[in-house]
Amino acid sequence: MGNPARHRLPVRHGNHDVHRQPLDAHRVRRSQGGRTHFDVKIRVLGSAAGGGFPQWNCNCRNCAGIRAGTFHGSVRTQSSIAVTGSNTASVLVNASPDILAQLQKTPDLQPNRSIRDTAIAAIVLVDGQIDHTTGLFMLRESVRPWPIWCTDSTYADLTLGNPILSVLGHYCGVDRRRIELDDEFTVDSVDDVRWRALPVASKPAPYSPHRESPVSGDNLALVISEEISGRTAVYAPGLAAIDDRLWEAMRCASCVLVDGTFWTDDEMIRLGISRKHARDIGHLPQSGTDGMLEWLDRLPAKTRKILIHINNTNPILDESSAEAAELRLHDVEVARDGMEIFL
Ligand code: MLT
Ligand code: MN
Ligand code: ZN
């Protein structure tokens, strides 16, 4: 390995320079077609669904067990990932209510180049749900308006149903960027990463102006590509069904990070927590006919398969459970907070 300093090319990011050398020097640098790049890094900031694990008011077997210290599994914060390209700048995908704790555990996202600093160049939202957007309030001290990428329907949810973006206008402000379905986009300063948003069948938030008549763009799967190698990851923390376009993207991906909310369709009903099925609230269960496991089994053997956005009731959180053993047999991983995936 040569001296990494030789590869430093200043890139403008906000009002300060960032460098092509990532902060975590162990990342792999590759050369392809005469260009040098670092593997794109996806860091799981939070792997739990809304409520987190344990959930504050929940006494299900999992939540009670982890509080009692008798549980074979880990605490998890709410749903978010950070994506870093060939420089220090990163994209925050979803801003969870746990964002401050997540950032405290991720020093790479808090470089110290000026009195107020962040490596987060922009925020991409897959929907307008509470667990993916409440953290925006915690990021109000930003020294510049946040570039926030979202679809028109999510923008409507966040300016009408739950007007977080309007409120942020009284603090740092919002530099709204429109996600057009199926169109590729790139995020300023986050080099070598390309993004594509696919609409997925799920549900907008309860406060959405169109909760009962979902529209295309309420919920997204993101296809995240490393520009030079073309390797992709599909990130879809909420999906009720897999259509042809999403399936094609999943088949071509080197890694899929997909909805791991519930093991069974009636999980919450059986526990007496809710009257709704998983599919009713926009989540494809893992088990059963046409469940997520059946789909994942059909992917190429080399595809890395990871469940993410896991609800605290899901038995897969218990590493000694029969369901967790079944996942291992199917070569399916369960995302953990702090997990890093390289493309
Ligand atoms: C969901 O994924 O269904 C929602 O985020 C649930 C919630 O946060 O209340
Ligand atoms: Mn959610
Ligand atoms: Zn619970």
Question: What do you see in this structure?
Answer:
There is one protein chain. This protein is of the alpha/beta class. Helices cover 19% and strands 24% of the residues. The chain is built from ten helices and 18 strands. The chain has helices at residues 61-68, 99-104, 130-133, 135-138, 152-161, 164-168, 244-252, 267-270, 292-297, 322-329, and strands at 11-13, 16-18, 29-32, 35-38, 41-46, 80-84, 90-93, 120-124, 146-150, 174-178, 184-185, 193-199, 220-226, 232-236, 255-259, 304-308, 332-334, 340-342. The chain has a seven-stranded mixed beta sheet. Strands 11-12-13-14-15-16-17 form a seven-stranded mixed beta sheet. It has a two-stranded antiparallel sheet with strand order 1-2. Helix 2 links the parallel strand 7 and strand 8 (120-124). It binds D-malate, manganese (II) ion and zinc ion (ZN). Residues 49-50, 129-131, 238, 281-282 line the site of D-malate.
Task: Give a short synopsis of this structure.
The protein is an alpha/beta fold. 19% of the residues lie in helices and 24% in strands. A seven-stranded mixed beta sheet has the order 10-9-8-7-6-5-18. Strands 11-12-13-14-15-16-17 form a seven-stranded mixed beta sheet.
Give the CATH H-level superfamily.
Ribonuclease Z/Hydroxyacylglutathione hydrolase-like
- In total, the number of domains comes to 1
Under the CATH scheme, the architecture is 4-Layer Sandwich
State the distance separating the first and last CA atoms: 20 Å
Average pLDDT score: 92
Give the structural class.
Answer: alpha/beta
Highest-level CATH class: Alpha Beta
Measured on Cα atoms, how large is the radius of gyration? Answer: 19 Å
Widest sheet, order of strands:
10-9-8-7-6-5-18
The total strand number stands at 18
- Give the topology string: H per helix, E per strand: EEEEEHEEHEHHEHHEEEEEHEHHEHEE
Largest sheet: 7 strands, mixed
The best one-word shape is: globular
> What is the fold-level CATH name, i.e. the topology?
Metallo-beta-lactamase, Chain A
Low-confidence stretches: 1-21
Portion in strands: 15-25%
